[in-house]
Design a protein that fits this description.
The complex is a heterodimer of chains A (400) and B (341). Chain A is an alpha/beta fold. Chain A contains 15 helices and 12 strands. In chain A, α10 links the parallel β7 and β8 (262-266). In chain A, α7 crosses α9. The chains are: A alpha/beta (400), B alpha/beta (341).
Amino acid sequence: MFKKNNSNYISSKETKRISKENRRITSEIEKKRNRKHIPESEYLTTMKNPENVVEFDNVHTYFFTDIGVVKAVDGVSFEVPQGKTVGIVGESGCGKSVTSLSLMQLVQRPQGQTVEGEIRFNAGEKVYNIVNTPISVMQTLRGNEMSMIFQEPMTSLNPVFRIGEQVDEIVKLHNPSMSKEDVKRRTIEMLELVGIANSEGVYRMYPHELSGGMRQRICIAIGLACNPRLIIADEPTTALDVTIQAQILDLMRSLKDKINSSIMLITHDLGVIAEMADYVVVMYAGRVVEKGTAQEIFKTPSHPYTIGLMRSKPVVGKQVDKLYSIPGKVPNPINMPDYCYFKDRCELSCEKCNGSYPGVIKLSPTHEVSCYRYQERKEAGWLMEEHLGKEGASERENKE
Amino acid sequence: MMENTKKISDATEKTPDKNDNILEVSHLKKYFPIKGGMLGRQVGAVKAVDDVSFTLKRGTTMGLVGESGCGKSTTGRTILRLIEKTEGSVLFNGKDVYSLSHKEMRDMRTKMQIIFQDPYSSLSPRLPVGEIIGEAVREHNLVPKSEYQDYITSIMNDCGLQSYHKDRYPHEFSGGQRQRICIARALALNPEFVVCDEPVSALDVSVQAQIINLLKTLQEERNLTYLFISHDLSVVEHISDTIGVMYLGGLVETGETADIFANPLHPYTQALFSAIPMPDPDLKRNRIILEGSIPSPANPPKGCKFHTRCSHCMECCKTVEPQAKDMGNGHVVKCHLYDTK
């Protein structure tokens, strides 16, 4: 009786039906993926803009769970231009990491599947559509053309192998013709590049002998060992101290220019984004709610969620009596509403918000937002600041 | 419950003057022994807390900042006598915490509480929330049995939890709500002093704001005193009245929050503050990037502990340990740079 009142309650019969249905869908996709000899024409494509390294085009990554389909990434589109840093911000569970994992094809299969959309990756001569690329081809791309730096430097290194072996491994794998001495030389070179003074000594050390900052440097060295075109940094500094964070961010910035690659930086820290990113993508509940250049996002945040996020973070040198907090919580990912996902938490929602999910509205050539407020504004010259009240407006003035 | 809140308000009314220190910590030291050799003898010590002294006024918040491994949490726990000190004294309401007998300490514990960092591992997964919050209340017989349920409900309401949450288990809650349970558990005993050991670091930005606001409201309502341990400087600036900056087991700078942020004196504090990422893409700052990482507390450098990473290092820094120097308005700094002044 107690359980029936709970809206999340699902009977075992229902669960069985869902899981049967899920298996049907996923096995179909898996079958298609596991064919032998997939012709190149199926996964090679062309970039919309050859200046970009990655183009996400309406990507949907779903997880088929026994209690329903979780739309972790639900129609995400953005680009990463060559040599630029794109920051992705959002709260935990908003699909930041799954977006990057989809790009690496590392989503847990068969439950997790990219069911729709295209991820175009520019690997120089060829352009791959990651969604259809077979695993054998992916293996030549991963680590070589794109690589990932993970959040936890403590757990992403293998504790039973020496540092040298772990960096050697990736160099050797992608350059099979290299001799042993060359591989070692390359590894030592990489360790020096990431600012490890005693590189010969560290080569023979185990991960537990190093501090968190040093370990993250090793992870960066592993990531950069093959001069990738794209580095995906998934919360690279969250586990580190402020002073070490400054070191690592500084290092990443200088290395990016040195090997001319792009960075996709995933974080929930707006401060880190402001320092590193050229372009910012704000995600909420699996969708992009706002994107634009760093200038646009920080000077004129437009989506109510972005504004709320900025106001809820205490900023050094700006005293407020009470921090703003976004009311409510993220909706249940299994039963997403069909109206704007943010409507229930939004203080500025209007009648129009009851309609279907708002489309993308361009505020400038680079600044896009998904909110009905701006559709009106476009039509009637309506200004956001007036409705935000004095506090919001004066805050913005202070920043400028 | 009424009785208890009355007790607290009595205590505060008695001494409304500004010099009412709830906590006086002097020369507190905590060394963890390193055992080694065949016989397991002590071969060294990790100097986790090395000569820390500060006072805390009733109803205020002191922020304790520093890198990980600098002894912030150990300081907090040694004050609460969750781990035993090596040297020094801790006076709580004028009484030496370490001179109390086991029984007296039990009563004292209701007056000082702690909120832990990780709300995922600090709650027992096998107890319903009402039991987690009420366990200590019943243990200490703080309220009569007949009022017990109402008391728990009112505490939960104060902390933003609903009364029907009482029968649920911790896994049914989100991170922010778990932290509320931790806060409710600490406050159920009506403490005067709460150590907040990184209470918001594991939470999302928007949830973080809710918890900080809650802590602030509760402080105003109950006249609580916080020792707020955190490595997030922007949070510390927001919540604290005074700040202590720790480096390698020692306090290098203490003072009013506004003073320290406007005019950081110690080179370490300056470097720490310059490393804070600011949400403003146009801001270009002269960042002081510290080389290397924090030395091992088992074998701290001689003289000033910071001299190995300091950009202003002088000859005397390497041999002579700097003394605390008051630069006015309670702004105390330990650095040779200010010796001559």
